[in-house]
Amino acid sequence: MIKIDSVAKSFAEKKVIENLTLEVKKEEILSLLGPNGCGKTTLLNMISGLTRPDNGNIYINDVLVNGEEGTKRVCLKPSERKVGYVFQTISLFPHMQVQDNVSYGLKSLRLPKREVKKRTSYLLDFVNLREYAKFYPNQLSGGQKQLAALARSLANEPQVLLLDEPASAIDPQLRESFRLELKNYLQALKITVVYVTHNLSEAFIMSDRIAVMGNGRIEQIGSKTEIFDKPSSQYVAKFLGINAFKGKAVRIQEGFLEIAVNNVQLLAPLAPDLIGKKVIVTVKPENIIVSKSADLNFNCALRNSIEGTVTEMVQMRSTAQVTVDAGFSLKTRLPISSIKNLGINIGDKVYLCFNADALNVFADNGSEPYID
Amino acid sequence: MKHVFTSSLSNKITLIILGLIVLTYFLFVTLPILAVFLRIEPSQVNAQLHNAQILDAIKLSLFTSGIATLIALVLTVPTGYFMATRNFPGKAIIDTLMDLPIVLPPAVAGVVLLYAFAPKGLLGPIFNRLGFIIPGSTIAVVIAETFVASPFLLRSAKTGFENMDKDIINSAKMLTGSRLRVFFTVTFPLSIRAIISGTMMTWARAMGEFGATLMFAGNLPGITQTMPLAIYVLLYSDPLAGVMLSIILIVISFSVLIIVKLLEQKRFGVKK
Q1: Does the structure show a pLDDT above 50 at A238?
Q2: How far is CA A155 from the centre of its chain?
Q3: Are β-strands A192-197 and A29-33 bridged in parallel, bridged antiparallel, or unpaired?
Q4: Under a CB-based contact definition with an 8 Å cutoff, are residues A357 and A269 in contact?
Q5: How deeply is B158 buried, as exposed, middle or buried, from its count of CB atoms within 10 A (0-12, 13-18, 19+)?
């Protein structure tokens, strides 16, 4: 549906998007996830036509909207692309009633008045704002404003909808319910959606697939499980809060791949082609079991069991992140109650167990962006 | 305890000194204004308002400053929009040059206008051929007022356009391909307060223009003698008339400032 082919953009000599390629499928909700300043908004602006790329082609529904075709340079106006855009800030026209905001795009279609009225009230009904038709934006709540902006962006019947951190302008305590409401609307629309966010759980709630962005390019794209179970780079793993460390694939042992990380031996799923190579290993914090006695290890059917010292504990609402130094640093996540039962404190010696299957191993090709 | 006492005492003294400075400055500005008001009795006002020279000056001032303000609106709002939304080499220099009349001494403004529009000036021959002699005419008054006063509107409009939320403009661009429609339905209404406040400042400045008008247009009653020029002449021949005109200008200036302040405070309205 959207095809972005080797697109690049620099602002004042600074490369913001570098040779980026991305395909968004028809009627999917794709989250564009990445830290602030990684070029997410620039990418949306290029799809929408508000920003012109320096290089590369952009297609929407197989129509070239930006780029070169033969000898012809194409750059369609934003309003000609059949793209709706909901911005990060509340961007309703403050001097117009909600209904005039929603009908703004319809009026440029030169439709008969009756048709404009009909479609406006349909859109207001769609986002449940019919009673607020004659309100001014400053009389609405944050969530209502963004829904009105959504209705406005849908007026021209776009094939693609771009949303740039739409929840960020909403009070934190209302954000959760806004996301769920918005998700229902997006699913009902059945159009292609690109949803920009820097928030992991938001990307998870909103989308079918996630594209992780870093330093002006797409680091990884895939379904939610693919991204979380098999992050393809250290950058993606770290951004998702998954342990990632460097090691070396040594040999095959008992049908597993043996990996040396510093002086610790780990067993991972078999991958003969990696033997002898430098590798990166990732493991999710929630897949690591923590115990205080070595005893459990014997009973434990898990393949990997290593010893370490607790170096840090960060308490969250119902869980805590416990960092253990086992020759390399590993983060684990435990329910608060388990921490109390086990009596874990900083400086304690603990044992970490995890299955070979919990490890995701890939070759370390050396060059990748780093978050820290 | 002693320390606390001294510090609160020194705070009090500081406050008293500050208060005295503020009072001095306030009186410095307001006493002269009061002095003018004290020179005229309410019974004399009516007679003054029938003085032909006063009426002529008021009419001429309203007419010329009105035209000057209209010209400024037509020229500076689009210019301000352009300067606020475009980048090009040499922008800073051009921007500064267009602001120059704000700080230029009015006498110098008069000189430069003479060298531009006098019959032997830079543009004079063109007007000669068309049958106009600018200096000494009402047109010269309008030109002088526009020259001196329009940068106020330019600055205000430009700032208004610059401070607009880009996402709001971009939202409009997503929905319509017509730049004119975006400008007239979104950009202009959202900067209307900046434009009105700039218009008021420009008009007030045009009403008060003295130096450039005197140098460039002269002081001919009914043709180029605006209110400030009439005050200058009348203060010696008919002081009461001069006082009356001054009071009118003070009231106008004060009203303009009040309106500008209100416009700056008022936020986009909840209309019910």
Answers
A1: yes
A2: 27
A3: parallel
A4: yes
A5: buried
**Interacting residues of B267 by C-beta distance below 8 A, sequence separation 6+:** none
Hey, what CATH topology would domain A2-229 get?
Answer: Rossmann fold (3.40.50)
| Cβ-based neighbour number of residue A149 at 10 Å | 28
The contacts of residue A136 (CB under 8 Å, 6+ apart) are A94, A95, A96, A97, A98, B268, B269, B270, B271
ipTM entry: 0.82
Q: DSSP per residue over A32-56, as a string? A: EE--TTSSHHHHHHHHHTSS--SEE
Instruction: Report the run of H or E that residue A3 belongs to, with start and end.
Output: strand A2-11
CA A268 – CA A245 distance, rounded (Å): 13
* Domain boundaries, given as residue ranges, for chain A: 2-229, 234-363
Nearest to A319 by CA among A305, A307, A331, A329: A331
At B115, which helix (H) or strand (E)?
Answer: helix B106-117
Q: Which helix (H) or strand (E) holds A354?
A: strand A349-354
Interface contact A79-B176, CB threshold 8 A: yes
Edge-to-edge order in the sheet of strand A29-33? A83-86, A160-164, A192-197, A29-33, A209-214, A217-223
B171 interaction partners in chain A (CB closer than 8 Å): 85, 87, 91-93, 149, 152-153
pTM of the entire predicted model? 0.81
Phi and psi at A329, nearest 5°, equal -85, 130
Q: Mean pLDDT for chain B? A: 90
Residue B142: which H helix or E strand, with range?
helix B138-162
Q: Do B171 and A80 touch (CB under 8 A)?
A: no
> Which of B167, B176, B190 is closest, CB to CB, to A108?
B176
pLDDT digits (tens, 9 = 90+) for A54-109: 999 999 999 999 988 888 888 999 999 999 999 998 899 999 999 999 999 998 88
B69-99 tens-digit pLDDT: 999 999 999 999 999 999 999 999 999 999 9
pLDDT in tens, B91-145: 999 999 999 999 999 999 999 999 999 988 899 889 888 888 888 999 999 999 9
DSSP letters, A145-209, are: HHHHHHHHHHTT--SEEEEESGGGGS-HHHHHHHHHHHHHHHHHHTSEEEEEES-HHHHHHH-SE
Per the CB < 8 Å rule, is A153 touching B172?
no
- Assign A132 to helix, strand or coil: helix
Q: Does domain A234-363 have CATH number 2.40.50.100?
A: yes
Q: What DSSP line would sit under B181-212, residue for residue? A: HHIIIIIHHHTHHHHHHHHHHHHHHHHH--HH
Q: How does residue B4 score in pLDDT terms, banded at 50, 70 and 90?
A: low
Q: Which amino acid is at A271?
A: A
CB contact under 8 A, A94 and B271: no
Residues A130 and A124 sit within 8 Å (Cβ to Cβ)? yes
